[in-house]
Design a protein that fits this description.
Elements: E1 15-20, H1 27-31, E2 35-39, H2 51-60, E3 68-72, E4 79-84, E5 90-92, H3 95-108, E6 121-126, H4 131-139, E7 143-147, H5 151-159, E8 167-171, E9 177-178, H6 183-203, H7 208-218, E10 221-228, H8 235-244, E11 255-260, E12 265-268, E13 274-275, E14 284-289, E15 294-300, E16 305-314, H9 322-339
Parallel strand pairs: 1-2, 1-3, 6-7, 6-8
Antiparallel strand pairs: 3-4, 4-5, 8-9, 10-16, 11-12, 11-14, 12-13, 14-15, 15-16
Helix pairs in contact: 3-4
Keywords: Isomerase, Magnesium, Metal-binding
């Protein structure tokens, strides 16, 4: 006779939290059920929150059955999440994928909220992040604000939130994540959110990777690419070219709107409407096209750096088509870069 008794499944998440050494004395560290690894901020730069930054943590758990790694920068203001892919190799979410994960877990963690009730949760996203985040927020009854990137800009939007908002989440393409303005509480809330999400997923025999793919199927697969344009002495000219002669015909795309934050002008080409953006002035222009393509160009550090960010989406109907869909959107964005021609002098 077969044993038809239910089998107990261990759904306790196994994770590692990666923190700068000054955080050793924080109360949340002592209470954290995860393994911890501390790094010396002087030896491990955090300018780029990427796979290389998280490498010491990934080396520590190599060959072990971990569900996730949660890493924080020197100031505990930026976050990066490592996760195992189906082959067991650890990868990291980029800031855009991470933002989608945080937004959905924050808004729908206790089940999908009713659309006929008052909004009690606020999500603040930087304007460079893709429209996938917008879809997640609106379809899960979240209040919504936009911001420029950076901790101070995100904080300013949080401070202006309406009455009735009980919880907030803010993030940008630079890996800033804010759930509390107290830095220790902010780390603790992020840990609680990810820990609860992974525990729920393990109960469903899913992983963070599965959750990520599910989001791409539900809200369309968005792809993002950020490039540093290196052309010494020419950055301002390139920036002004995007502002004054936005590319359209060369890419066979219909330009729909221009948001020029230097001129403080928003222009909808379809309706002819002009208005002033709600965000502060800065050297940035955003171009949106009828296909869904969005191009953001930002001039920083007194003209020494120029960033080109592309965002677009495609349909992804099931897990079997995910790899192909991801490659297609990657190839499409690279073709856009090529079609920009002389506007982009040198893309690294």
């Amino acid at each position: 006779m077969e044993n038809d008794q239910p089998v107990d499944v261990n759904v306790t998440p196994k994770g590692l939290i990666y923190l700068p050494e000054p955080a050793k004395g924080a109360s949340f560290v002592n209470e954290c059920p995860l393994e911890t690894l501390f790094y010396d901020p002087e030896k491990f730069p955090d300018e780029n929150m990427n796979y290389k930054f998280l490498l010491p943590a990934l080396e520590k758990i190599k060959g072990q059955d971990f569900d996730f790694v949660l890493g924080f920068d020197h100031d505990l203001k930026r976050t990066i999440i490592g996760y195992p892919n189906p082959e067991g190799r650890f990868l990291v979410f980029n800031a855009h994928q991470q933002a989608a994960l945080f937004a959905h877990a924050f808004l729908a963690g206790d089940g999908y909220p009713g659309m006929d009730v008052d909004k009690t949760k606020l999500v603040v996203k930087s304007i460079v992040l893709s429209q996938q985040i917008d879809k997640i927020i609106t379809k899960n009854n979240g209040a919504y604000k936009e911001s420029h990137a950076g901790y101070d800009d995100l904080k300013e939007k949080i401070m202006s939130m309406d009455d009735g908002i009980q919880e907030f989440l803010a993030f940008d393409e630079k890996n800033h994540v804010i759930m509390d303005l107290d830095k220790d509480a902010n780390v603790e809330k992020q840990f609680d959110l990810i820990h609860s999400l992974v525990k729920k997923l393990k109960g469903e025999e899913k992983s963070l990777y599965d959750f990520h793919v599910d989001l791409q199927i539900r809200y369309k697969l968005y792809g993002e690419k950020t490039f540093n344009i290196t052309s010494e002495g020419e950055n301002k000219k390139i920036f002004d070219r995007f502002r004054n002669k936005p590319p359209s015909d060369a890419m066979h795309e219909e330009l729909v709107s221009i948001s020029d934050y230097k001129k403080q002008l928003f222009f909808n080409k379809l309706t002819g409407r002009k208005s002033e953006p709600e965000l502060r002035q800065m050297d940035m222009v955003q171009l949106e096209y009828s296909s869904g393509l969005k191009i953001s160009v930002e001039l920083t550090d007194g003209g020494e750096k120029l960033f080109l960010h592309l965002s677009d989406f495609t349909d992804c109907y099931n897990k079997e088509s995910y790899a192909t869909s991801r490659k297609n959107i990657h190839d499409r964005l690279l073709k856009v870069v090529v079609s920009l021609g002389k506007m982009v002098i040198d893309v690294n």
